[in-house]
Amino acid sequence: MAHARATPGRLRPGAAGILVALASSSVFGLSGSFAKSLLETGWTSTGAVAVRMLGAALVLAIPAAVALHGRWSQVWTNWRTIVVFGFIGVAGCQFFYFNAVERLSVGVALLLEFLAPVLMVLWLWAVTRRRPGLRTVLGAVAAVAGLVLVLDLGGSIRVDPVGVLWGLAAAVCLAGYFFITAKQNDSLPPLVLATGGMFVGGATMAVLGLAGVLPMAVSTADVELGGWQTAWWVPVAGLVLFSTVLAYVTGIIAARSLGSRVASFVSLTEVLFAVLWAWLLLAELPRPVQLAGGVLIVAGVVLVRSDETAGLPGEATADVEPYA
After folding, report:
1. What are the φ and ψ backbone dihedral angles of 156, each rounded to 5 degrees?
2. What gap in Å lies between CA 69 and CA 82, rounded to an integer?
3. Can you give the pTM of this predicted structure?
4. Are 27 and 247 in contact (CB under 8 A)?
5. pLDDT tens-digit map of 22-61
6. Residues contacting residue 213 through CB under 8 Å, at least 6 positions apart
7. Are 265 and 143 in contact (CB under 8 A)?
8. What distances in angstroms separate CA 101 from CA 48, 93, 151, 164, 293, one per listed residue?
9. For residues 274 and 55, is the Cβ–Cβ distance under 8 A?
10. Which of 179, 185, 196, 324 is deepest in the core (most CB within 10 A)?
């Protein structure tokens, strides 16, 4: 049987998917620096997330309508997918993560949330009864070890068991995000899924804030970003346009190209990008141990990717339907 030859000068689909996933992680990583500059001037996390998501939904509304080509029935047909994505992939991750941060250090809470890829491997193992390949297991270990180094969790840390449960709930939601976005769905364009999810997630956060479940406040005071005093709307625009619109759309495209498992492991590089952006914008210089952790994360991604291309246990999209 003849094998198709790659066209010179073009990336293979897998390589292109990896690049898109890395681009998504890099702009997702910007959110921490943008949000921190706002939080230091009186914004609450709930207010920042609600403005971020609803603002992104408004930006994406017209392009999403164009992508539908008048086929509005697609939205109704896939309303469950949109609602689940909004509740779990958008609002759920944020809500549970913020509750974890209230009881734990940010580093520990983030580490718990990014245990999602490991939870996905265990879930697929339990559901499909197929043991993951050795390289997937080694990749998971390397990625988690890399996260520990990147987050630099040195010193004494008080572990609150309730906070740990909130963090694990955030990890479950993040795993759900990858399962949902990786599901092949030719009738629902990625742009429409992202827009609908933003509306649902943003509205959920706004309701939680207005109901007093989470504190909500915003401020129009100037912020400090990259060593410069700038208007409050600059980081807000960055959160909306880069860390949300561009990040979620490219993330969905990458997940559908790579599958849930590989895309979830590539997303671990978001932590490394967040450290690098904080270095550039907030003068928080990463330590050598954090750079070493970045190397371990990349090694874990390579191991999982090589296991996938070797034809070992498959993707969630082929084996599991995580929602109706």
Report:
1. -80, 130
2. 18
3. 0.67
4. yes
5. 888 888 878 777 887 888 888 888 888 889 889 999 998 9
6. none
7. yes
8. 15, 12, 14, 10, 22
9. no
10. 179
